[in-house]
Amino acid sequence: MLKRKIINIMPFCPPYDLYWNDPRPRVNWDVPNGQWVGIWEYDWLNQIGTEVLMLTDDFVFEIWQPDYRADRVYSHTFPDGLVHRLFPAIGRKQMYGVKRIVFPQSESMMTYLVKEIQTSNILVRVMAMDKGIARDILRIPINFPCIGQFWGEFSSPIRHLHRFQKNIPAKLHDVREHFILKKLLSRVGYFTCCDEYSRKNIMMYTKNEIISLSIGINFDFWTPRKQKMRVRAKLGLNNKQKIFLSSARLVDAKQVDKVISTLNKLDKDHDFVYIVTGHGDEAYERYLSKLGAGLLKKGKLLFTGYIREKELFDYYTAADLFIMSSLSEAGPTATIIALAMGVPVFSTATGQMAEVLVRHGAGDVVPKKGYKVWERELREILCGKKVDVLDRDIVKPIHHWPCVAEQYIDLYRRVFREYCEY
Questions:
Q1: Closest CA to 400 of 350, 338, 336, 353
Q2: Which whole number is the average pLDDT over 79-105?
Q3: What's the total number of domains in the chain?
Q4: Which of 128, 148, 132 is CA-nearest to residue 89?
Q5: DSSP 3-state assignment of 284?
Q6: Distance between CA atoms of residues 416 and 180, nearest Å
Q7: Which of 52, 26, 123, 137 is nearest to 401 (CA)?
Q8: In terms of domains, do 45 and 128 share one?
Q9: Mean pLDDT score of the chain, rounded to an integer?
Q10: How far does Cα 196 stand from its chain's mean position?
C-alpha cells in the first residue's frame, strides 16, 4: 500500500529580500549564475510538518515552493523526514485594475504535481487560493483530495465594492474575481482558517466544511517568570520607563511606522521605550530609522534586528505592553506569545487573537487605521490606564503545538478516509 503523502504548496518564493543583511540559511545551494538558493526551515509549514511528524509516522510530509532563483528542482530531507523542495519559477503579471501584480508561476511544479496525483496516494494543501500558483493547481483537470488553507485575513473581492476607490477598473476586476473564486473553490473539499471574519467570507464561496486551525507555539517555553526587573537590568533598560514591544517582519503592512508616528506625538509628555524586534525590507527599515530619528537619539526607540527565542524571551519578559499594529494577520504568533507570557496586548482589529481578546473583554483592540484612536489609547496607557491580561489557559488549548498538531493529524486522516477509494 502506498504511504499517504501530504504535499503542502507554498504560493510565494523564499524571502531573500527580507534577509538581505543576514547570512545564508543552513540549507542552501549555489546556482550557476552566481546566486544561491536556500530553505528557511522556520516557515509555518515547516514547523507544522515537524510537529506532525513528532506525533505520527502515518504520513510523508512535503513542502513545495516556487523560487525565482532556482535553475532546477532543489530538495532537502530533514532528520525528521520532512521534505522541502524548491521549483524553478517565473513571474506572472496580473492586472488589478490599473495596477500590475506579479505572482510566481512554476511549470516544473505543475508537471511534478500531475505525476504525483496519477501515481501516489496524496493530499494537496494549498494556500492563498485567491492568488497565483494556487489557481494553477485548482485548474488541474484531474480529481484529487485538497485542503484549502487561509492564513491571514481573507476578504471576498466584492465585500468592499461600495467603498470609494481611485482605481475604478479594480472594481470590475473584483466582480470577475468573485465568480472565478466561486468556480475554483468548488474543487476544494475542506477549508481551514484562523479567524471568524475569514470564515464568514469563505462561506460566500462554499458549503463545504470550514475548520478553525491555526499555528502554534511551545507554551512550555513561553511561560511567564517573575524576573522583570532583573531582565530589564540585563538588557540595559530603565525600570522607571514604560516598555512597549513589537515583534514583526518589517514590511509596510505591519504599520510599525504608524506606531512610531504616534509615539512621536507622545514623546514630549511621556517617558517610554519602544522596542522593535525583527527585520525585513531594506528600504522600509531605513524609513523607520529616519521616522524615529528623534526617539532613537533619546534612547526611546530600539531596533534589535532579528533575534532568536532565548533573547526574544527576555524582551517579552521586560515588556509592559505588546503592540500589534498590522493591517492583516492570522494569529498572529507574536501576539500568541505575548498572551502566553502574560503581557498586556494592544492590537489592531485583525486576526484570531484580536477576536479572542474582544470576546473575553481583555486587551486593547483598536481599528486598523484608527490612528487617532491609537494616540488616545496609548496616551491613556502611559497615564496609567490598565490593560487587562487574558488568561493564558484560554489560549493554550488552541495554540500549544501538540494540540495544534493533533488537530492537523485528525484532519489529514479524515480526508484520506474520505478519499480512500480515490
A1: 336
A2: 86
A3: 2
A4: 132
A5: helix
A6: 27
A7: 52
A8: yes
A9: 92
A10: 16
Residues 6+ apart with CB under 8 A from 279: 18, 19, 21, 22, 249, 250, 285, 305, 306
For residue 285, the tally of other CB atoms under 10 A from its CB is 21
- Number of Cβ atoms within 10 Å of the Cβ of 184: 18
pLDDT-based confidence at 100, cuts 50/70/90?
A: confident
What residues contact residue 110 under an 8 Å CB cut-off, 6+ apart?
136, 137, 140
In the predicted model, what is the mean pLDDT of residues 52-62?
A: 95
Same domain, 268 and 174: no
C-beta of residue 224 within 8 angstroms of C-beta of residue 342: yes
User: Same domain, yes or no, for 193 and 268?
Assistant: no
Least confident of 173-182, 226-235, 261-270, 316-325: 173-182
pLDDT digits (tens, 9 = 90+) for 343-358: 999 999 999 999 999 9
Q: How far, in Å, CA of 133 to CA of 151, rounded? A: 16
Mark whether 17 and 140 lie in a shared domain.
yes
Q: What is the CATH number of the domain that holds 248?
A: 3.40.50.2000
The residue-averaged pLDDT of 80-88 equals 97
pLDDT level of residue 161 (50, 70, 90 thresholds): low
pTM reported for the whole predicted model: 0.92
Instruction: Give the β-pairing of 242-247 and 321-324.
Output: parallel
Q: What pLDDT, on the 0 to 100 scale, is given for residue 102?
A: 85
| Cβ pair 26, 2 in contact under 8 A | no
Domain-embedded: residue 221: no
Instruction: Assess whether 296 and 203 both reside in one domain.
Output: no
Q: Which residue range(s) make up the domain with 187?
A: 4-216+400-418
Band of the pLDDT at 422, cuts 50, 70, 90? very low
Radius of gyration, CA atoms only, the chain? 22
Distance of alpha carbon 144 from the chain centroid: 27
Average pLDDT on 399-412 reads 96
Query: Where are the strands (E) in 257-305, listed by range?
Result: 272-277, 301-305
186, 328: one domain: no
Task: Return d(Cα 92, Cα 106) in angstroms, integer.
Answer: 10
Question: Taking a C-beta distance cutoff of 8 angstroms, is the pair 210, 202 a contact?
Answer: yes
